[in-house]
Amino acid sequence: MPATPELISPRSPRVAAARRLARRNFRGKDRLFLAEGPQAVREAAGHADTLVELFATVDAAERYADIVGEARAAGARVHLADEDVIADISTTVTPQGLVGICRFLDTPFEDILKARPRLVAVLANVRDPGNAGTVLRCADAAGAEAVVLTDASVDLYNPKAVRASVGSLFHLPVAVGVPVEEAVAGLKEAGVRILAADGAGPDDLDDELDKGTMGGPTAWVFGNEAWGLPEETRALADAVVRVPIHGKAESLNLATAAAVCLYASARAQRASGGCRSVTES
């Protein structure tokens, strides 16, 4: 880095192009999205052919010199900027000095099916970007092989969803815009059992675990934060399962329920079949 680095101008077309990615229509048109903060930028730099550009304050470039080096090694253009430019591009109240521009990285649903996944999270009509990103993070942590966002769900590349995934967006295949009926039909044809998560479901998660029915390939369908799953979606599932409430809490929020369900499946699959990551023929 030169001793007196040249800062990119706030009036630069590159800054204007980055700023507009806060809006969904421009993200879709450019097929680019923002990844903010050191964790997301590091993950993006390590994901092949994803990170296009990086904007960094001088202070952040020095503090995270390893990340900036990884970005340059990945072929990204690095722009040094003052804090006002970063604040203008960033969608957070307190920017961390690094904002990356990344290519879309969603996976065709057909490719997910070809990989014969054993644990999948399907987000049906999930509208809150923070919830979507958190469920994606939970799926990654539980060892799921894929996440599917239906056509009625929030934009995967919403900045809040990207932040809430805490880098997990770059770890596992995610299909977007798939009608829920198509998602369920495709997964069933691939030999995956469909479980709909619903607080009023007739089947109890503890009972499912006790019966030993959860060791095979499984997709969990999670519904809208406010009204859950409609009856027509519930009818598509092989079972509608509730997480038991043993205490006095009224309910669990979406992300918490998703974590419980996904980890229950992961535990059952490991107990019944060993390593879930082995692709079945």
Task: Describe this entry's structure for a reader.
β5 (119-123), α8 (129-142) and β6 (146-150) form a beta-alpha-beta unit. Helices cover 40% and strands 19% of the residues. With 281 residues, it is of the alpha/beta class. It has helices spanning 13-19, 24-30, 38-45, 58-63, 65-73, 83-89, 109-114, 129-142, 159-165, 180-189, 205-211, 231-234, 254-273; strands spanning 32-36, 51-57, 77-81, 98-103, 119-123, 146-150, 174-178, 193-197, 203-204, 218-222, 239-242. It is elongated and about 65 Å long. α8 (129-142) runs parallel beside α9. It contains 13 helices and eleven strands. The model is unreliable at 274-281 (pLDDT under 50). The strands form two sheets. Strands 7-6-5-10-8-11-9 form a seven-stranded parallel β-sheet. Strands 1-4-2-3 form a four-stranded mixed β-sheet.
